[in-house]
Request: fold
Amino acid sequence: MSDRRIPRLLQTPAVVLLLIWMLIPLGMTLYFSFIRYVLNNLRRPEWTSPSLSNWRGVGNYEFVLNSKDFWFAVQNSLFIVGSILFGTVILGILIAVLINKTFPGRGIVRVLLISPFFVMPAVNAVLWINMILDPVLGLNGLAVGGINNLIDNLQTAPVVGGFFSLWPEFEPISFRATQTSAYAVIIMVTWQWTPFAVLIFMTSLQSEDQQQKEAAILDGASAWSQFRFLTLPHLGRPIAIVVMIQAIFHLSLYAEIEIVSRGNGNKNLPYLIGEFANNNIGAASATGIFAVILANIIAIFLLRMIGKTLME
Amino acid sequence: MAIVAQTSRAGRISRATFAWIVALIFFFPIFWMVLTSFKTDADAVKPEFLFFFTPTLENYLNMTENYDYWRFATNSVITSVFATLFTLAVGIPCAYAMAFNPSRATKDVLMWMLSTKMLPAAAVLYPMTFLTKNFLGIYDTHFLLIIVLSLINLPIVVWMLFTYFKEIPKEIIEAGKMDGVNTWGEVKEILIPLAWGGIASTALLCFIFCWNEAYWTVRLTTTEAATLSKLIEGNRAPEGLFFGRLSAVSAAAVGPIVVLGWFCQKQLVQGLTFGAVK
Reply:
């Protein structure tokens, strides 16, 4: 009787829930982005509740596009995402090739390598910015202090002392300024996501054609040309997927930025939206729509690639 | 085999050594956090106690006093467990129908589900706050977090289950139908026992993602339903004051999950690349 109806019924809850989850909040964002809507305004109290009579058209979009913060946030988002992608892909390929062949303790090496990926983002940020990168009390500060002490001691040494007294005192890098805290975020996220790239490249290397490789070795191909002409082309698709998935994740990077750079100006789009949302909901919503557009540009390519393999 | 033997012994040894060094470097921050958690707050910032110190359990014993750890941990457990169960309850029937009765729309529905995952969370920050605070009155409740965590993980879960279910021969289900088993019976008696491994690893991965989620858990809670992410985020900048105790609470927050993660490395590839890398 119900060959058709039951499967459809079984899918309904999932589809309806996701539809609500997607349409209602996004619809509200779209609506708020076209009206004047602020949380506190004593002179114009009518703006503090959403209403069509406060229609502003594309005014919020113009406001956002004209604000320096927005362009800085876009630029900074792209800089952070780009640097992380570059680091994780290069490190990921190198490490995957390195551990692709068996060696003693390979299982343990894999377990050690994958671990950073499961550390929650909040802990990742707190651990790096305090215990490791702090310029005074973290390992960064302690190591530079140790080097300075060593040089101080060498300066009084008999023969080489004269040479070392020419050396300057080293200054540890502080990762709490605008630019350097972006570097801190890049370092910690690269640390966390390199394991992901390694895992994917390794999975893909397992399916590399070994006979082709052996033939190449017999023909006297060097290790480099094997890598360049066999392995790298084989990794093309996984690289594209790693890049797109990470781009989508890191464009909404939030916890790390919040923890590392509160108040020092190192913002990305999600952080800027959070700042706007403290008062100017209209601007926050318009920025949100821009973020959706940016993510969609990448998502379209990703979905197209996945779609191809879907029904195999 | 002759070819493999050509790689020199020295080459193999140096390769293995190098691999070990890289792995140890990557693991070092986690090791450092665990090591620091056994130091007193005062020792943690003294260079002379970098590696050699008198270990103490004080930081772990005082976690409740210092941070109210167990309240946050309980919230994390409750929200992650129930979100995982709810996601599976919605996801299993959906993936079952898609795998065994695919229609022309199935592919599009799957792709559309994935596309919801790609929506940047920050874009809907204010509507979510507004809806849950002023309209539904469920801001800062377990219920809200369970629903939100389920919805953000539902696409991945459906996707993973779908790829597992596809591997099961259709004939087995057909045979069940001949014997007059109804749909619920098919799922309970045939599908779940057969795909048990796949369902378990999907659940494990979903649980890990829920546990580590750090946008909605931070922005949609204040005190009542606050999870471990919120706890750590709230103690972000101690300026060297509490390195020992902060390390202990961080290690307690990530330890169990890192260990769980070791068991689902393979599923991670499948779950995060939506089956596009095999």
Q: What stands out?
A: The longest helix of chain B spans residues 69-100. Confidence is low (pLDDT under 50) at residues 1-5 of chain B. Chain B touches chain A through 99 residues (CB under 8 Å).
